[in-house]
Design goal:
Layout: H1 3-14, H2 26-35, H3 41-54, H4 58-63, H5 66-73, H6 80-95, H7 104-107, H8 115-126, H9 135-145, H10 154-167, H11 173-186, H12 205-209, E1 225-236, E2 240-241, E3 244-245, E4 255-256, E5 259-262, H13 268-273, H14 275-281, E6 287-290, E7 297-299, E8 303-314, E9 322-323, H15 324-327, H16 334-342
Parallel strand pairs: 1-8
Antiparallel strand pairs: 1-5, 2-9, 3-4, 6-8, 7-8
Length: 349
Amino acid sequence: MNFSNQLIYWYLNNRRDLPWRNTTNPYYIWLSEIILQQTRVDQGMNYYFKFVENFPTVNDLAAAPEEEVLKLWQGLGYYSRARNLHFSAKYIVNQLNGVFPSNYSEIIKLKGVGDYTASAISSICFNEPMAVVDGNVYRVLARYFGINTPINTSKGIKEFKKLAQQLLNKEDPATNNQAIMEFGARMCKPQNPDCNSCPLNSSCSALAKNNIKDLPVKEGKLKVRNRYFNYLVIETDENTTKIVKRKKGIWLNLYEFPLIETLKPINENELIEHETFSNLFGLNNVSVKLFNNKIKPHKLSHQHIYAKFWIIKIANSLNYKHSWEDISKYPVPILINNFLNEYKSDYFF
């Protein structure tokens, strides 16, 4: 039994019953693939159900305000996925008359869709013989065939794609692709793979050479950047506050409290002396108190954010018009959402 047939046999006997495996609707498959980028299945499941319930068709998603889409996505991270999803839904409706593209070359034109996602949708929904290559596939192929080419290089990307395409069962690409992804996720795991019960263990190069932990190879990691955020949580006498929409960078178009970013941690005096603080409050009489004395880093893929939340009490002003009751309606980064959940106030919510 060849490599692909062994994987398919294992998959048919061990696959999980996931909702997107019970449909070939390209809209639903697309939703699941975008949600599961950088996200575990157990974490993404509820988001998939929420999107299907709130936006049952691509027309519904296209018609929704961006803030509604981002609010539904809140907590999932990598918010560019949601923005691209919404953008592409409007493109499908407005430019393609609401008809989802039906082949790889057209699917990959959608914003936020790369080779892997286009291959998955085209093979699962339209039986197009396009092999998927994601992190799970890289790991299975690198270990089984003993490939040392770094997977995050142009050479590695081409080499693994070519091999996956050669191995693909052209008659049933959908099952083949889902089989190798499932196998990588559950059997050939990054840590502690189940080699003893692996159906491929008798011919696996990495197991034979005892270098499972060394594969796949990845070139130098990006340096993690430390950032220091100082959020100004304004409280007025009338129980109003101020939030603003981010215009760039991480969390684009999400809402947050006014922010002062510094090169290093600062104390209360340094905060008050900061130019942005002066521009916001001028000569107004304000009181300042740090809410969170223990600062835990909020870890993103290539940056750690150390956030302080400063409670600024001030008299009433037309500049601070957001009621606390309305804050929960806005899409916010999980960092802000966690603060709001901790923040106890007599009038909050």
